[in-house]
Structures are given as C-alpha cells and as structure tokens.
C-alpha cells in the first residue's frame, strides 16, 4: 500500500508543536515590550530627576540658601510627564565641631591644667564654635525624588547632593559683630 500525505495524528502533533512555539514567541515578545516600556519610564524619570536637581541647585546658587532652601516640597510634572510626581527636601546639616573637639579633649586630658592651657582650650572652643556655626549656615543637603506608578508597583528614583555656599557671614562673637 502506497501512503501519500499525513495521518490525522501527525497533523495534530505538528499543530501542537506550532502552537507551543507560537505561545513561547508571544510570551517573549510581551516580556520584551514590557522591558522596553519600563526602560523608557526609568529613562524619563532619570531625565526629570536630573533636571529637577539642576534647577534646585541653580536656585540655591542664585537666590541663596535661606531663600531657596525649603524644608519639603512636592508636586506633579506637567504634560507630557503627568504620570510622574516629585519630592524635594532641603536639610540643614548641623556640624558640631566644638562638641567633637571637647570629647577628644576629655580623652586626651591627663592631670591638672595650668592657666595657659585653660585659656588655650577656651580659645580653641570658641574657634571651633565659630567654624561649626559657619559650616552649618553654609551647607545644605538636597534630596530629590521622582515617583511614578508602574502597573501596580510604585517606583522611585532619588538623588542627594550637598551644596556649600562660602559667601555666608561667619558669626563672630563680640559687640558690633555681624550675626
């Protein structure tokens, strides 16, 4: 008997193999599309974050620390980025050089002190106090976040920068000194 063509079982097996291959390809394509979309959103968020950070640093440089540094701010980006929100925080960094020096001094103390070293210690404490206040007044930590919804997941990208303005007046104790 001469056989020509395929049996029904052979056709069903071939269709099953084709269907499985098509489903696997579809899953891979869906994963690729999702990865590209997520990558695009991360790139947009990074770009928005960089712009927001640059704008904030520019304000701190142009307007000064006291005017431009607000504790907390937040908002939404305008179209076409309305799916993204932002948060900005500007912190004062409290440097405590005089307290650190006093602790160090306590550790180094040995025996009685004479009057000269006592005056020296008071002078050192005053200098460190002035330096602490100056550095604290001149330095801010700027933290910026961009937040968006990716499906059911909230995503965030953040950056932190430190801004130092050396044009601040040092607080020199004494009568008539600028504060």
Uncertain ranges: none
What is the tally of helical segments? 4
Order of helices and strands: HHEEHHEE
Secondary-structure-based class equals: alpha+beta
Rounded to an integer in angstroms, the radius of gyration calculated over CA atoms is 32 Å
The overall pLDDT, averaged over residues, is 83
* Approximate strand percentage: 15-25%
**Share of helix among residues?**
40-55%
Q: What general form does the structure show?
A: elongated
How many DSSP-defined strands? 4
Distance between the termini: 111 Å
Short description:
With 179 residues, this protein is an alpha+beta fold. It has helices at residues 8-63, 65-68, 97-108, 115-138; strands at residues 72-76, 84-92, 139-150, 153-164.
Description:
The protein is α+β, with helices and mostly antiparallel strands and 179 residues long. The chain contains four helices and four strands; from the N terminus they run ααββααββ. The chain has a four-stranded antiparallel β-sheet with strand order 1-2-3-4. A hairpin with a 7-residue loop joins β1 and β2. α3 packs antiparallel against α4. The longest helix is centred in the first third of the chain and has 56 residues. The protein is elongated and about 120 Å long. The mean pLDDT is 83.
Describe this protein with a few key phrases:
179 residues; alpha+beta
Explain the layout of strands and helices.
Layout: H1 8-63, H2 65-68, E1 72-76, E2 84-92, H3 97-108, H4 115-138, E3 139-150, E4 153-164
Antiparallel strand pairs: 1-2, 2-3, 3-4
Helix pairs in contact: 3-4
């Amino acid at each position: 008997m001469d056989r020509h063509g395929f049996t029904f079982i052979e056709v069903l097996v071939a269709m099953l193999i084709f269907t499985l291959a098509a489903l696997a390809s579809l899953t891979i394509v869906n994963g690729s599309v999702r990865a590209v979309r997520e990558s695009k959103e991360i790139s947009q968020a990074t770009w928005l974050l960089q712009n927001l950070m640059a704008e904030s640093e520019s304000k701190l440089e142009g307007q000064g620390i006291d005017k431009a540094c607000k504790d907390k701010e937040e908002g939404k980006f305008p179209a076409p980025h309305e799916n993204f929100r932002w948060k900005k925080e500007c912190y004062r960094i409290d440097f405590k050089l005089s307290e650190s020096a006093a602790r160090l001094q306590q550790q180094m103390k040995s025996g009685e002190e004479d009057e000269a070293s006592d005056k020296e210690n008071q002078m050192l404490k005053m200098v460190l106090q002035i330096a602490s206040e100056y550095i604290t007044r001149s330095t801010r930590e700027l933290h910026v976040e961009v937040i968006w919804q990716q499906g059911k997941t909230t995503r965030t990208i953040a950056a932190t920068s430190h801004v130092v303005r050396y044009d601040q007046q040092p607080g020199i104790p004494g009568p008539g000194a600028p504060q």
